[in-house]
Amino acid sequence: MSVRLKLTLSYAGFIMLAGVLLLAVVWVFLLRYVPEVIYTAPRDAPGWPGPMIVPNRSDLLRAFVPKAALMLAFLLLFGLAGGWVLAGSMLAPLTRITNATRLAAGGSLSHRIQLEGRGDEFRELADAFDTMLARLEAHDAEQQRFAANASHELRTPLAITQALLDVARNDLDRDTGELVERLHFVNSRAIDLTEALLLLSRANQRSFAREPVDLSLAAEEATETLLPLAEKRAVTLETSGDVALADGSHALLLQLTTNLVHNAIVHNIPTRGTVWVTTTASPDTVTLTVENTGTPLNPRLVTTLTEPFQRATSRLHTDHAGVGLGLAIVKSIAHAHDGTLTLAPRAAGGLRATVRLPAAQPHPGR
């Protein structure tokens, strides 16, 4: 049976039950006190006014039961009709939600229920469903855009590889050393891009174990790893701050820190640049801040830097240019740890990247 039919039968059943209880009250408190046989004085008794008929219990039952049966039949029909109308009115929002669900299952994520009326349970359900559809639509659009960008980025090294192989096949007398070197560089870039895509997918899926991670130690490890690159580019690295414990994956948080420091080194002024890496801690949150010197940035451009394959400058064909996923990976890792990434241009030039994560909570037995 449908929910509407079940509600209709339930309403009718309650009305019938109420009618039966009412009749039971009439019987308990009225009819049962009427005697079966009523004795009256003889008609020839002194003072008898004349012929008189006094109904007994049987007479009352014969008069009452047919009317009660008709009333119960009326209550049954009234309960069924009224219950059907009331159930349909109450379930109308559920029908709209069901239709929206079917449209969403068919791929139409732009549809919204937009249920009117007071804020009851159906309104809350419809609003929650609209919010879910909005998030799914945004996520679907982001995934499509990401897939298109990833395909474009992967197509470039594959096309270059194909061109180099064609040159090597058509010009057998050409020195292959240069071709091999260029093939090695292009292949390394393709591997880096693939690994970055896998890391981004892992962060989005939150498939990692959590443990206390000190962001200050991660910052020191990242700066030590990238120190040769900083010295090559004449960039000074300065690390300071407090112990900042966060619950998460050590590998992912180290990757987050490394990406921020690497980005700050690469996108810096040509000579005598500086990168500042600081950590702070509070009872509820821990903060990692990476700042660098550089050219002044447009605030509108800064808001797009966390999008995959977005760069603040033109594409750089160097060994350390990255694949355009550095800040996108940072944002995904921060969100996977229930944190946030905030980017802001510095007044003197350069970028300030701030990652805020929930502070590690003490665990029993630690």
Summarize the structure in short.
The protein is of the alpha+beta class and 366 residues long. The chain has helices spanning 3-29, 57-105, 121-170, 176-205, 215-232, 250-266, 299-302, 326-336; strands at 211-214, 235-241, 245-248, 273-281, 285-292, 340-345, 351-358.
Shape: elongated
Largest sheet: 5 strands, mixed
Task: Report low-confidence residues grouped into runs of 5 or more.
Answer: 314-320
| Number of helices in the DSSP assignment | 8
Q: Biggest sheet: strands side by side, in what order? A: 2-4-5-7-6
Structural class: alpha+beta
Q: What is the helical fraction, as a range of percent? A: 55-70%
Number of strands: 7
How much of the polypeptide forms β-strand, as a percent range?
A: 5-15%
Describe this structure in words.
- With 366 residues, the protein is of the alpha+beta class.
- It has eight helices and seven strands, in the order ααααβαββαββααββ.
- It has helices at 3-29, 57-105, 121-170, 176-205, 215-232, 250-266, 299-302, 326-336; strands at residues 211-214, 235-241, 245-248, 273-281, 285-292, 340-345, 351-358.
- The strands form two sheets. Strands 2-4-5-7-6 form a five-stranded mixed sheet.
- Strand 4 and strand 5 form a beta hairpin.
- The longest helix is centred in the middle third of the chain and has 50 residues, at 121-170.
- The radius of gyration is 40 Å and the shape is elongated.
